[in-house]
Design a protein that fits this description.
Distance between the termini: 17 Å
Shape: globular
CATH superfamily: Ribonucleoside hydrolase-like
Radius of gyration: 17 Å
Mean pLDDT: 93
CATH architecture: Alpha-Beta Complex
Oligomer: single chain
Structural class: alpha/beta
Number of helices: 13
CATH topology: Inosine-uridine Nucleoside N-ribohydrolase, Chain A
Strand order of the largest sheet: 3-2-1-4-5-6-9-7-8
Bound molecules: beta-D-ribofuranose, calcium ion
Number of strands: 9
Helix content: 25-40%
Low-confidence stretches: none
Number of domains: 1
Largest sheet: 9 strands, mixed
Length: 297
């Protein structure tokens, strides 16, 4: 399948990107970046560093710096100032493209047969909202959007009901939901069921693959930054890898139809008029195996 990955790397973004780049079932046409976990300059540079480590040449297109009409929030407490938890990645061997994210998305979508390119959204939905606004004909050509974000029946992670990717730019999320795209959301309800323990990191490292070893180091950084979690317990949720994993293994997720909207003040998802598909559960053991196998490619 052909995919554009929209991302703000980000520790768990990096694992998702490494998995998608290395997996033979996914052809990543481009990485489009935005400010989110950390600022746009850092997320764009990180995308180049991840591509270089993966050894799969892929263009990187910088996108939105800030949310639509509000102040950004930052997640450096979780992802570190460098966005990758201090894990050693090579410098990018190729500079980011001069073509901005939305222009690149529109060009790729218009050039391909209708409904053949998927969009994997690992961060706030700002770039996709701008595509819908500036190039609606191109947005209508997307086959399927799979996005990590939101909290449905679970507490949020940046507010009582608010999850970071939606709450960082609720206006963008509202515009995207209203666009009528084929949209599958993976909220905290599912991603909190998907974590790693120390034995899993040993398995990743034992593969000898650079992408798997880097992923183990990234998950280790997740442990290190979780003060109350002793080494040997489970990591923070591996949110973003759920996106490419769902693309390839939909049978390992429980997907329910939901009708949702966005509460703009709080950034919470609430019952509303937009019918989408929502992953509410997953088979964690099988997905951990799929992730390690893909990273070892
Ligand atoms: C989401 O927020 C980011 O910090 C993670 O990369 C993930 O995309 C989880 O709420
Ligand atoms: Ca992310």
């Amino acid at each position: 399948m052909q995919v554009i990955i929209d991302t703000d790397p980000g520790i768990d973004d990096a694992i998702a990107i490494l998995y998608a780049l290395r997996h033979p079932g996914i052809e990543v046409l481009a990485l489009t970046t935005l400010g989110g976990n950390v600022g746009l300059g850092v997320t764009t540079r990180n995308a180049g560093r991840i591509v270089t480590l993966a050894g799969v040449p892929t263009p990187v297109h910088p996108g939105a710096d800030v949310p639509l009409g509000r102040e950004p929030r930052s997640e450096t407490a979780i992802h570190g100032n460098d966005g990758l938890g201090g894990v050693a990645f090579p410098d990018p061997t190729v500079a980011p493209s001069d073509e901005p994210a939305v222009a690149a998305m529109a060009r790729l979508l218009r050039a391909a047969p209708d409904k053949t390119i998927d969009l994997h959204c690992l961060g706030p939905l700002t770039n996709l909202a701008l595509l819908v606004q500036d190039a609606p004909d191109a947005a209508a050509r997307i086959r399927r959007v799979i996005a990590m974000g939101g909290a449905i029946d679970e507490p949020g992670n940046v507010g009582p009901r608010a999850e970071f990717n939606i709450a960082h730019d609720p206006d963008a999320a509202a515009r995207v939901l209203a666009a009528g795209l084929d949209f599958t959301l993976i909220p905290l309800d599912a991603t909190r069921q998907f974590r790693a323990d120390a034995a899993y990191l040993d398995r990743l490292r034992a593969t000898g693959s650079p992408a798997a070893i880097a992923s183990a180091d990234l998950i280790d950084a997740y442990f290190a930054q979780t003060e109350h979690q002793a080494k040997g317990s489970e990591s923070r949720p591996l949110h973003d890898p759920c996106v490419p994993l769902l693309a390839l293994n939909e049978n390992l997720f429980r997907i329910d139809p939901r009708s949702l909207g966005v509460e703009l003040d709080s950034g919470a998802l609430v019952p509303g008029p937009h019918a989408i598909r929502v992953a509410m559960g997953l088979q964690a053991d099988a997905l951990r195996s799929a992730l390690s196998e893909g990273l070892a490619e």
